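During the reporting period the student researcher (J.K.) took over the structure-prediction task from the postdoctoral fellow and processed the backlog of single-chain submissions. One of the processed entries is reproduced below for the supervisory committee.
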Amino acid sequence: MSDTFGRSPSELEAGPVVPRSVVAPASVDSTLLRRIRGLAVGLHGARSLDDLLDQALNVLATATGADRAFIALVDETQTEVRGRRGRGLANETVASVVVPLRRVATEGAGVIYGVVRSGQPALVAGSDPGPNEFATAGFGPFADALTVPLTGADGVLGTMTAAWPSPSDDHAATIDPVMILADHVAAAVDARRRVDAEHRDLMIAEELHAVAQRITAGLSLDDVLASVLRAVEKVLDASSASIFLAGPGGTVGTRRFTTRNTGQPHWDDHVQTRPDGLTATVLRSGEPAVVEDGLRDPRTSGIGKGDNRTFVAMPIRYQDRTLGVLYANWRERRRIASRDLRLVETLATYGAIAVRNARVHEEAVEAARFDGVLLAARTIAHEINNDLALVMGMAEIAQMQARAGQPPDVSILDDVIQGAQRIATHVRQLQSVVRVEERHLRDLPPLLDLGQSTI
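J.K. obtained the following structure tokens:
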């Protein structure tokens, strides 16, 4: 089996396959037309894209008597299946959400892509080789299958297929009614996508605003970087996100801030960094790197696994310096659009501002510590000089009394001892200070308030 609806590699190498039977409409059942039109009206009130597709499949099966139905949505290039949904198929193909992208092995291979390219319906008999096109969709054996295009405002959005267990000439008569249903489905999908796009734009704006607020609020670096990682996951539907901060001289640091493994932002030791790896390359070049298939890309040989099938490595730049690399990771293979890159770049810029602010703060703290050392030196000189002057003065008086043959005054000796004790106390306080409190006396330089400083 291949990844293109069950066609084997040998079939794909034989070249593109066009629809086996592109048929002109037979006689149209007017009752069926009215029924489809009536049922299709409800599609426009669907709550979500998944709900819309489920309703469309139910209408298709109900109106045509098909026992199996299938919708495939393609990307804007019409070379990949963006999602698929089925009714009456194998359980694994009926997902609660639209399933991830699937790569096309050969351009135009198969009935579905033939219908997408031509914009025309195709009725395939079960005896033709065509049924293999639907094998991975869980269709199983069938007699006839009708596939019609879903044509939206900007082109073909995908295809809709109905399959019957028994052959009948009447199936050709369903082409025109099913095409009408397909027009309703395509219009509803277009409208749903516009609504989803508006909601997405609003959500992105709110997330970016929240990150900016955290930066301006002066929160810790970890808090701001955590909000950046969360925003990457939310606005890009990424499975995880990570940040590597550059080491001295632009080297790759082994510490990584990430949501991988735990789902929560945390620091870990990333020992798999390589001197010639992707992170080091992005740090050196200052250019982003996009890997759409980590299992096959030579730049990521051996590391494209787990939640790292597709990823973007975006430099975190501030002015002309690269401060680190922001990664967005996806478990499944994904086509990275220019819009995705712009969002990652914007979030990387926010990360750069946060890192720069943190480093400016660290420099300010270091400068304050140095100023504190100078302040302590001035305080030592002031406090100890005062006590030394008193001790020296009292000692000289005691010396003069002794030379005159008089016993030294005990109170004078007490003053000498007390002065020496105060000097010892000042030294012990300075050795234990962890928070500096200043004392200002008129227009004199500030001094360390040893009594108020934290010990």
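The committee noted the following: Confidence is low (pLDDT under 50) at residues 1-28, 90-109, 127-133.
J.K. will present the remaining backlog at the next meeting.
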